[in-house]
Amino acid sequence: MSYRIFYHHGPELGLAxxxxxxxxxxxxxxxxxxxxxDSYPIAFHxxxxxxxxxxxxxxxxxRLKHNKGTHFVSVIRFMIGQFALINFLxxxxxxxxxxxxxxxxxxxx
Length: 109
Known about the structure:
The chain is an alpha+beta fold.
C-alpha cells in the first residue's frame, strides 16, 4: 500500500525543519520512501526503534531509528510548500503496521 507523506532524514524535527514530500510504500520486508526519482528502502530488521510522537500538539509523526540514521514520517492530506495538513488517523495506522512488522522481524516465533 502506498501513502502520501512528508519526511525528514535527521536527528530531530521541529517547526523550522525543512521537510520533503514523497510516498511511502509498505512491503513484506521493508518500507520504501520515494521522492522524485529517488527511493530509500528501509528493511524492517534494520529498524532499531519506531515511535509515534506528537509534534508540538499539531499532529502525529512517526520516528524511525535505523542503522543509517533517523527518519521522521507523517501521512498527509495535502502539502503546499512547507505547510502540510497531517492525516492523524492514517499516520496511526501506518505506525501500527510498521511496529507490528518490526516486532515480528526482530522477535521471530
